[in-house]
Design brief:
Layout: H1 2-14, H2 19-29, H3 37-49, H4 55-69, E1 74-75, H5 77-87, H6 95-107, E2 110-111, H7 113-124
Parallel strand pairs: 1-2
Helix pairs in contact: 1-2, 3-4, 5-7
């Protein structure tokens, strides 16, 4: 975890996750072959703290969380509760989070009733306003 904290300090100093930092994160988080809950919690906290979100980091973040959640092919009640805390931390569901839930639903072999309720509740939330120009 020490190496992750060093990467985190570099990222927070830069305010964004780009090439070298993203690769360092990938190597460190997937070093054991899969992302455990401690690493997933670290990544969620880092995602909240990054000032300037890059498309590459957004993609990496959601893929890593998906890899963590679907490690056993199913989403149980405890994982659904963890996802709820992660997704509703700011009190709303963003478009990327809605897309993420759709992907989880499509890729999971089995989902708990708690996940189904989370999914349904999330889809009822208002979409983000988008402006042109």
């Amino acid at each position: 975890m020490l190496h992750l904290r060093e990467i985190e300090q570099t990222i927070l100093a830069n305010g964004r996750v780009d090439g070298p930092e993203l690769e360092a994160l990938r190597r460190q988080l997937y070093a054991g072959g899969k992302i455990d809950r401690r690493d997933a919690d670290f990544l969620v906290e880092l995602h909240r703290r990054v000032q300037h979100m890059t498309p590459a980091f957004e993609h990496f973040f959601y893929q890593a969380i998906k890899d963590h959640i679907l490690g056993h092919g199913r989403i149980d009640a405890e994982e659904a509760a963890w996802l709820r805390r992660m997704l509703f931390a700011d009190g709303r569901i963003k478009d990327e989070e809605r897309k993420f839930l759709h992907e989880l639903t499509g890729e999971a072999k089995q989902v708990s009733r708690e996940f189904e309720l989370l999914f349904q509740e999330s889809m009822k939330q208002p979409q983000e306003p988008h402006t042109c120009g």
